[in-house]
Amino acid sequence: MVPALTAAVVILAIAVIVNMLLTFAMIRRLRASELAAKQDAEAFRPSVGSPVGEFSATATDGSAWDSRALGIGTHTVAFLLPNCGGCTSLVNRLTPAHQPDRSIVVVVSGSADDPATVAVVQAIPGDLKVVIAQLGGDVGQAFKVATFPTIVQVVEGRIAAVGETFDELPVAVGVG
Question: Are residues 94 and 121 in the same domain?
Answer without folding.
Answer: yes
